[in-house]
Amino acid sequence: MAPRHSAGKASNSPSSSKKKPQPSPFLLPLNVALYLFLLSNTLAASLAPIQDCDESFNYWEPVHYLDHGYGFQTWEYSPQYSIRSWLYVAFHAAIGKAASIFTSNKTSQFYIIRCALAVLCTACEVRLYAAISRVLNPQIGVLFVMIMVFSTGMYHAAVAMLPSSFAMMCAMLGMTAFIDWRGKNQTARGIMWFGIGAIVGWPFAGALVLPFILEEVVFALISSSLKTAVMHVLNGGVRCLLVLALEIAVDSLFYRKFTIVPWNIVAYNIFGGDERGPDIYGVEPWTFYFQNLALNFNLWFILALLAAPLLIFQSLVRSQTTNKQTLIRTLTFITPFYMWLTIFTAQPHKEERFMYPLYPFLGLNASISLHIIISYIVSDDKREFIGRIPLKLKLWLTGGTLLAAAALSVLRTVGMISAYDAPLRILKPLQNLGVSQPEGTVCFGREWYRFPSSFHLPNGMQGKFIKSEFKGLLPGEFARKEGDIFHGSSVIPTGMNDLNLEDPGKYTDISRCDFLVDLSLPNTTATSPLEPDYALDKSRWEIIECLPFLDTARTPTLARIIWVPDLPFLPRSLRRVWGNYYLLRQRKELL
């Protein structure tokens, strides 16, 4: 796994006048890698469900507000707290505004923004693949492509409108700069990209740059070039300060007060106190991320965990193939994975999206582990047991294992789409003028957290909340003022708090709802006066659309984890159990 070197001694022979073409550093041509990444990410943009209500309410809704003048507002966007960046939102809103030139359909605008995110992620993945192939090993590069293209985790992270996804993309570019030193040191550029991900995206993602800076310092001390290293780091720091200045300017404009959003985020999450902070939204056991990553990356996650032990084992057993500098550099590349997993495993509050910046590092670690294992497997050294196994058999077993892991990832991805895509499709009938009416309302009760976004509602229609058993704080609405987009972002809304305390002012009376979205899970849904099975009240509600939605409580574990066909002859342990996801219309005589 030694870095590739292109320099060599010149020859004085006559044949040296004709330079031999350099072998390609890519086993998989760049354009093929591009097409694979783009296909995977575009499919995700078209089909992936929104997994987190934070994505809908904290990002899609502010984007809708900038593009269309109205939308839901969470407490995080109140100037009183200001822990969300308008620079990040404005970037996506600009894409949506450009899309509106070509289509007035808001759902189409939603998918255009998603496709733009897919293209951006593709560009980052291709850059990182190229650096891995050129510097580490072409085989590692191919394995990296396979892992990133097939993993369920990347399927969701690539197109999620979340700061952690943005930080993931910036981390790929930062890692690319630190890996690929061809011709010049790119420390400043690497620090800049990690800084952009931390400042514009998620501040905690800045920790990922620390192993690379430490490597820079170590090599500087070894080569007595500490002054040069300090200048590189300062150069990168100055670039980050310029980005921070831009963010402060934009956020201060929107909030109409001097605001440093990255600091506000850190202060809230770390210094918020016992009554505040992320823990009030729930805590998980230390095993949460291990289980989640195992589900979303299966074999690749196990291989990522094994990267450091395998690398150290290789350096001890086959020391002739690895020099000290190569070992230090490779250890640097794999360290962020362990560091990030350790830091966030120790935090009580856990969310799947917190792992997004980790994904490219997981892919790299797993690729390195696979490369080491495959190099050992294909060995023909008869002194070793593995060398006495027929090569064809070893290749079949290895290839079969990789194909099985890829197939398992595909089955999980398809299972997630088929089980949970109803919220993205349920509002589609409202685009039919014969169904909806301008200025109508679509209400959400127990299903409030699956509201996809106002982009899925026709122009003029708005989402509203009705009382349910949920006792926390629901989003409000941005204040509106004709011709002043900054009014809603700068006015302190009523009823907001950072304690997740319920505000009765967020609810609408059900009699004012034109439509209602509800989930019915036969034999599972426990009805109450606040959460009845509305679809059964046919005298009041008319069913406009009904889509299947997985009943996770009654579906066996394996059928929840991966896709299985809905065939009657399958044993009960493999059958998926379905509920009904409804779009209901209130009968006109009752309005």
UniProtKB/TrEMBL annotation:
Q: Which residue spans traverse the membrane?
A: 140-158, 164-181, 193-214, 293-314, 326-346, 358-378, 399-420
What is a single cellular component term in the Gene Ontology annotation? endoplasmic reticulum membrane
What name does the UniProt record give this protein?
A: Mannosyltransferase
Keyword tRNA-binding assigned: no
Chief site of localization: endoplasmic reticulum
One biological process term from GO is: protein N-linked glycosylation
Which pathway is this protein engaged in? Answer: Protein modification; protein glycosylation
Membrane topology value? Multi-pass membrane protein
Positions of region (Disordered): 1-23
Member of which family?
A: Belongs to the glycosyltransferase 22 family.
Q: Where in the cell is it found?
A: Endoplasmic reticulum membrane
- Per its record, what are the GO molecular function terms? alpha-1,2-mannosyltransferase activity
Supply the InterPro entries for this chain: GPI_mannosylTrfase
Q: Which Pfam families match?
A: Glyco_transf_22
Q: What is its EC number?
A: 2.4.1.-
Keywords linked to the UniProt accession: Endoplasmic reticulum, Glycosyltransferase, Membrane, Transferase, Transmembrane, Transmembrane helix
The species is Ascosphaera apis ARSEF 7405
